[in-house]
Amino acid sequence: MGIIQCKEISKSFGEKVALDKVSVDIPKGKIFGLLGPNGAGKTTLIRIINRITIPNGGEVFFDGRPITQEDVEKIGYLPEERGLYRKMEVGDQALYLAQLKGMSRNDAMAELKKWFVKFGIQDWWKKKVEELSKGMAQKVQFITTVVHKPSLMILDEPFSGFDPVNAEIIRKEILRLKDEGATIILSTHNMESVEELCDNIALINKSHLVITGGVDEIRHKYGNNNIELIYTGENVLSPVEGTFSVLSDEDNAGRHTAVVSLEDGCSTNAALAAILSQQLQVNSFRELIPRMNDIFIKLVTEGA
User: Fold this and answer.
1) CA end-to-end span of the chain
2) 130: exposed, middle or buried (Cβ count in 10 Å: 0-12, 13-18, 19+)
3) Same domain membership, residue 150 and residue 27
4) What's the CA gap between 304 and 300, in Å, rounded?
5) How would you list the strands of the sheet with 75-78, edge to edge?
6) At 240, which CATH number?
7) Cα 241 to the chain's mean position, in Å?
8) In degrees rounded to 5, what are phi and psi of residue 181?
9) How many other C-beta atoms are found inside a 10 Å radius of the C-beta of residue 80?
10) CATH of the domain at 47
11) Per-residue confidence (pLDDT) for residue 303, from 0 to 100
12) Highest mean pLDDT among 190-194, 219-223, 253-257
């Protein structure tokens, strides 16, 4: 059983259906990607988990029991709409938000100082929020989201506003927090981040759950039995009836890069044996697994 279970969650705003009987199970200690195009219902589901919005139907469970406000207070939530008080000093604001999450002032001060040093922003403590760039403010808000060491963190577009260097810093911290036992819900449009970080995903489109499961499992499910082959030799690869067809074969000074499509029921071992029987020197042989970006586009487009 996951740390969060959403069972048949429905939510409407007037005649607009935001979620229609969506069920997801978020396992403990994993990074769970919540995906979907703009307006699909992701943010509504996040707000329901955080009890900011009440569903019209269905229920959210935390550790196997109906979620309470006390549970929500233990969650670290980084919303897509950033919300720091522009006139406050950065340090005062961070202390205030940490104490709202139940930390004592002394504990909050000690932990925040560590994070500020780690992110190289200790000189910003006395600056006002309005003096910070978008990326700087984002660092501060990330820190205030995780400083109380919540068991569950919900990060909505956490890389927004960051250059590649700082985005990599955040990625490493997310992975470290997972290694320390945290569960992380990651809502993002960045499919590279999904492949790099997420163990499981759920894709929501037009208020409905389209697919959920492990990232590797889903990528293999939407594979098309294509193999990339790099080979050399005097012969040119020929298709073998009942085994594979040749989709492409590019020759670069005697080094060939070919893509073959396996026939239904043909194993990769059988295909490799048929290729080797053609007296070719095989340098590389790998399954072509679709990227999450391609799967996302395919599923969203089909549902359009």
Assistant:
1) 33
2) exposed
3) yes
4) 6
5) 75-78, 152-156, 183-187, 31-35, 200-205, 208-214
6) 3.30.70
7) 41
8) 110, 0
9) 14
10) 3.40.50.300
11) 67
12) 253-257
Lowest-pLDDT range of 2-11, 55-64, 66-75, 171-180: 66-75
For residue range 209-229, what is the model confidence (pLDDT) as tens digits? 999 999 989 988 888 889 999
Assess whether 198 and 162 both reside in one domain: yes
In this structure, the answer to whether residues 202 and 231 fall within a common structural domain is no
Token duo for residue 253: 């000074």
Closest CA to 114 of 106, 124, 122, 104: 122
Cα–Cα distance measured from residue 77 to residue 142, given in angstroms and rounded to the nearest whole number: 9
pLDDT in tens, 103-117: 999 999 999 999 999
Same domain, 170 and 38: yes
**Count of the separate structural domains present in the chain:** 2
Q: How confident is the model at residue 154 (pLDDT cuts 50, 70, 90)?
A: very high
Cβ contact 73:22 at 8 Å: no
The mean pLDDT value for 89-116 works out to 93
> What does the block give as tokens for 105?
């002032």
Half-sphere exposure (Cβ direction) of 21: Cα atoms closer than 13 Å: 0
- Residue range of the domain that includes 120: 4-220
Name the DSSP letter for residue 85.
-
Question: Are 170 and 240 found together in one domain?
Answer: no
Regarding whether 113 and 178 lie in a shared domain, the answer is: yes
